[in-house]
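User: structure tokens for this one?
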Amino acid sequence: MTLANLPPLVTVFGGSGFVGRHVVRALARRGFRIRVAVRRPDLAFFLQPLGNVGQISFVQANLRHRGSIDAAVRDADHVVNCVGILFEAGRNTFDSVQEFGAKAVAEAARAAGASLTHISAIGADEKGEAAYARTKGRAEKAILEIKPDAVILRPSIVFGPEDGFFNKFAEMARFAPALPLIGGGKTAFQPVYVADVAEAVARAIEGKVEKGRIYELGGPEVLTFRECLERMLAAIDRKRGFVSLPFGIASLIGSVASLIPLITPPLTPDQVTLLKKDNVVSKNAEQEGRTFKAFGIEPTLVEAILPSYLVRYRPQGQYTRSGKAA
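Assistant:
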């Protein structure tokens, strides 16, 4: 194979993260060459078996350091940005990662003549109350100014084997007699399977959707916070009560937890603020066809996937007898 007919090269920022690893898998199956850009390449080698020998390479990159971004994008045909944070820690702030970093990736892609697919989130709003949503929204605006042909994907809450939502509460259910319902558990979500999001990224790279648009990706069901926890408990065969936690008290708990060093906070005030608004596909996106329908993807039901990776939280794991909830 000569250089002229090599498969396209895709640089994936955050390729070792939850969504990123599934994007790498989807691209590898299609035969793309993949350059995984992460802060710690030595911790990303687990991705190599997803592709053939030499198909997946690794490069050090930090979205706070523009030089590393330019180096990671050099000679790439496509760029995917999967990087996002749920809470701030040290120099990794929402501003530095989700706004400055996203803009830098877009500028690097433009300079390299590469197409860009950016993963944002439903609820992104440059004037939003939560810093997470606000920086996501400002990044989207800047990206479309820099790269008018960029494809932006806004998924709802993403679930899958490595998710930080169902796994977190399933672990909690192993020991806690009751689970917290922040704001009464009324916030609506549209859980989306991580492999479906990755497939949307791959199809965007293949040019199967219109560029320069924002697509909202939600699963086939709208579930409240409480209903999500009920589905999780059914999957792990456990019975637990619920405790309603007002937003104000939840925010206070998050503030205290955020002050404890060397731990990942289970909750932050910014996350509580996000929970005050439903996280579902907008009516405008539905009416304009800016959903999974544009990609020709039928989204996966939560119940079809949840038991496959939450089985380890059952009282006796895979040997738990159905209906014998603990």
